[in-house]
Amino acid sequence: METTEVIIVNRDDGIKVGDVTLDRVEKLVYLGSNINESRDPTAEIKSQIEQAQAPFVKMKNILCSHDLSIDLRVRMTSCYIFPVLLYGVKA
Q1: Which of 39, 58, 71, 86 holds its CA 20 to 30 A away from the CA of 21?
Q2: pTM for the complete prediction?
C-alpha cells in the first residue's frame, strides 16, 4: 500500500482500505501516460512530443542529410519517430 496513489475526480474525501488512507495526488504516470485530476490532455501531449524529440535528435544528421533520398528519410521518420509520438493515441 505504500506505493499506491489515487486520483479522485469530483470528490473531496479520500479512499480508505482497512485502516490505511491512500495518498491522493493531482497527477501521476500510469503505464507511461500522464493522468491528472482535471483530465487535461496538455501534459500528456507535451510529454509525447518530448519523447519523440529524443529519436529525432539522435537521427537528425541522417534525416536532414541531402545525401539520402526524401523517400528514405520519410520512411525512417515513419518507423522511428511517429510510433513514439503517436503511442497511446486513439484513432
Answers
A1: 39
A2: 0.54
